[in-house]
Amino acid sequence: METITDTIATLEEHISVLEHAFSDPSIDPSTLRERTSEYSESQEKLEQLLNRWEYLEQKAQNNTKDYIPPITKKNLPNMI
After folding, report:
1. How confident is the chain (80 residues) per 10-residue block, as mean pLDDT?
2. Running DSSP on this structure, what letter comes out for residue 5?
3. Torsion of CA 78, 60, 48, 45, to 10 degrees
4. CA-to-CA distance for 18 and 13, rounded, in angstroms?
5. pLDDT per residue over 29-52, tens digit each?
6. Nearest of 3, 13, 15 to residue 56 by alpha carbon
7. If DSSP codes are grouped into helix, strand and coil, which group holds residue 14?
8. Phi, psi for residue 24 in degrees, rounded to 5
């Protein structure tokens, strides 16, 4: 559990750095496109990690295998 929370914290910090970089008026369009893409990918990964963390927390609290994780766009194709 500690590893996933560390990864989430690191990713949140990375996203914060990217958000700060967006406010730099001297950023060139090419770098902005790269950072925007990196930001989107990081947000996606963060969402996946948070869903996984929520699932693991719920499983630990309930101590049951009957918990069904929330349905998201990411895991919907895998559930069909």
Report:
1. 84 96 92 95 95 88 66 58
2. H
3. -140
4. 9
5. 999 999 999 999 999 999 999 999
6. 3
7. helix
8. -75, 115
SS (H, E, C) 16-80: HHHHHHHCCCCCCHHHHHHHHHHHHHHHHHHHHHHHHHHHHHHHHHHCCCCCCCCCCCCCHHHHC
Whole-structure pTM value:
0.70
Reading phi first (left if > 0) and then psi (alpha if -120 to 50, else beta), residue 76 is in alpha
Q: What is the crossing angle of helices 2-22 and 29-62, to 10°?
A: 150
